[in-house]
């Protein structure tokens, strides 16, 4: 997948761009923009990222800077692998 050009900069939704200046409003804030990049201003904040059904709590650390919010709220449910048992076997 090609990267975004450097002269454009990283994508941050306009809503997140406005609230990242005051950190108090950012604590435990719901974020629907999964495509936005995580900037250094979000470090040490706990946010709720929408996965399509329910918001998922995520603590932003320095290692997550530069990634997208959607990478940390999985949209698919993990199910344990089960073997298909035959009829009558328990």
From TrEMBL:
Keywords: Mitochondrion, Ribonucleoprotein, Ribosomal protein. Coiled coil: none annotated. The keyword Flavoprotein does not apply. GO terms for biological process: ribosomal small subunit assembly; translation. PROSITE patterns: RIBOSOMAL_S19. SUPFAM superfamilies: Ribosomal protein S19. GO terms for cellular component: mitochondrial small ribosomal subunit. GO terms for molecular function: RNA binding; structural constituent of ribosome. PANTHER family: RIBOSOMAL PROTEIN S19P FAMILY MEMBER (PTHR11880), SMALL RIBOSOMAL SUBUNIT PROTEIN US19M (PTHR11880:SF67). Belongs to the universal ribosomal protein uS19 family. This is Ribosomal protein S19. It comes from Bromus inermis (Smooth brome grass). The gene is rps19.
